[in-house]
Every structure is written in C-alpha cells, then in structure tokens.
Automatic annotation (TrEMBL):
Organism lineage: Bacteria, Pseudomonadati, Planctomycetota, Planctomycetia, Planctomycetales
Domain of life of the native organism: Bacteria
Name assigned to this protein: DUF1573 domain-containing protein
Matches recorded under InterPro entries: DUF1573, Ig-like_fold
Length: 294
C-alpha cells in the first residue's frame, strides 16, 4: 500500500483526533509570535491649585454707575497641597490696575483679585477687560479673568452723594463735596453756579474752588456745621443752583449727629473721636429738575 492509499484509509475520526493533538502546539507557537500586550495607559492630570468662584464678571445687562473708577473682585481658593505664589497680574490695557490680596496663598486659604477700571478715558457702550494671572503651585500656571460692563455716557458725578457725619462735628471741620462734569465739551467750561443754599440753619455751604482738565471740569463745595447744632440726628440739604439747562439744581443730602437723647449726645460728643464724612448709598435726590424742588 502506497502513501496515497494510506491517507485515504484514515477515517474522519482519526483526522479529528490528530488535529486535537496539534492544537496545543499551534497555540504555543502563536503565543510566541504575538508580542506581549502593552500595560494600560494611565493619564495623571494635576489640576491647577487656584479655583475661582467666577472667571467672568458680566454686568453688561445693566448700565454701570457713572464713576471715575469701577471695581470688580474675583474670589478664589487654593485647593492644592502646596502654597501658591502669584507671579504677575498682566492687564489688557492701561486703564486697569489689578492687585492681589496676597502674593502667597497657603493650602486651603482664600483670596481675591481686585480689578479697578479707570473709566475716565473709556468710551460708552459694552466694554471688556482682561487680566492674565500667572502663578506657581509649584508648577507654572496661567488663568485669564474677564470683566464685562456697560459704560454710560459720561455726565455729572457727585462724590460723596450723601454727606454723613456721625456724631458732633468739630467747629472747624470742613467736609468737601466734588461735582465732576464728564460731558463732552465741558472739560474747559466749569459749571456756572449762581448761588449755594443749605438747610437747616446750622449747615453752611460754599464754593471751595473750580478746576478744568483734559477729560473733565470739577467744582468743589465746602460744608461746615455751626456750634449751635441741636442735639440728636438731623437731615439737611445743600442745593447748588446753576445756569446749566440740564442740571439747573444739584442737591446733596446731609445727615449729621447721632440718634439718642440730648444728654447721651452731649456726653458722647465730649468723649468720641472726631467724626468724619463718608460716602453712602444714594439717598434722596442728588440731581433734580428745578421744577421738582419742594
């Protein structure tokens, strides 16, 4: 019987058993030929340590108050394991003066970036200001903070809008109020003031001076209180009459003294420190039409 006849005489069952015997050898050969699988890729990302409450302060849906400086604040926390060092605060324009509450922030501590915007030379409309914060935690990091606001047309600014003197004023104390005119073409033309009136009788007001600049003109008022002021807290009003058709009368509310009995006010006025004037929220009428005066 030749070799061909021998192959033909092999039954199907014998062929199957033969293949089963070869499978382990084939599997071992294939395993040797295929390289070992690479270990799973692990990506480790270290997050920046400083986390801000907001990265965009957007108040452009409302018109900002007409002020020479508008300030925004960005609060943050160091959520890392190492101290953070703030290297640089880079503003997008010269009208910004950013500053940090601290240059070194320990883990878990909070802080803030204050962003004052000098608006005197800024045009009206929606404006966007950026400050780039560079810091180390200890890796070098960089984050951009954005401030967006709607600047109004420049008009008249009174500071303070209300004169508040808590306690008994000193006889020689003077409190100054400035009226800044930002309107176009008025930088070299200060307000023409016809007279200044004050009430009640112990409030005295006068013009302290006027000046002109490149962007605005300014009028300064001096306010004093006479020694015959009655005990207690009193409200008054300083009225500035002008020849300006837009602002014929400018009114500055005054609050002076302290609530309480006459005896308490008398005793406290002798021992209290000298009071001082300060800005307060808008109370009463600041700029009114002459027909509205009562």
């Amino acid at each position: 019987m030749n070799a061909t006849d021998q192959l033909r005489s092999v039954t199907p069952l014998q062929r199957g058993l033969f293949l089963l015997l070869l499978l382990p050898s084939l599997g071992s050969a294939l395993t040797t030929l295929i390289p070992d699988a690479a270990p799973p890729l692990q990506v480790v990302t270290e997050r920046p340590a400083l986390v801000f409450e907001t990265y965009l302060a957007d108040s452009s849906q409302y018109e900002a108050e007409s002020r020479p400086v508008i300030t925004e604040e960005f609060h943050f926390r160091n959520q890392g394991q190492n101290p953070v060092e703030i290297i640089e605060l880079k503003p997008s324009c010269g009208c910004l003066a950013p500053r940090a509450s601290a240059n070194i922030i320990a883990p878990g501590e909070t802080g803030r970036i204050t962003l004052p915007v000098r608006t005197a030379n800024e045009p009206a409309g929606i404006r966007e200001y950026l400050v780039n914060v560079r810091y180390q935690d200890p890796k070098p990091r960089e984050v951009t903070l954005t401030c967006r606001m709607l600047l109004p047309e420049k008009k008249l600014l009174i500071e303070p809008r209300v004169v508040m003197v808590m306690g008994q004023p000193a006889p020689d104390a003077r409190y100054e109020v400035s009226i800044s005119d930002f309107r176009e073409g008025r930088a070299q033309q200060p307000l023409q003031i016809s007279r200044v009136e004050a009430a009640p009788f112990f409030v005295k007001a006068s013009i302290a001076g006027q000046s002109s600049g490149e962007e605005l003109s300014q009028t300064r008022l001096s306010i004093q209180f006479t020694a015959d002021q009655p005990p207690g807290q009193h409200r008054g009003l300083v009225s500035v009459f002008t020849s300006d058709p837009d602002y014929p009368v400018i009114q500055i509310p005054v609050v002076v003294g302290r609530r309480g009995t006459a005896a308490a006010d008398s005793n406290s006025s002798q021992s209290a420190e000298a009071p001082h004037a300060r800005s307060a929220p808008a109370i009463g009428r600041v700029v009114v039409n002459i027909n509205d005066i009562s």
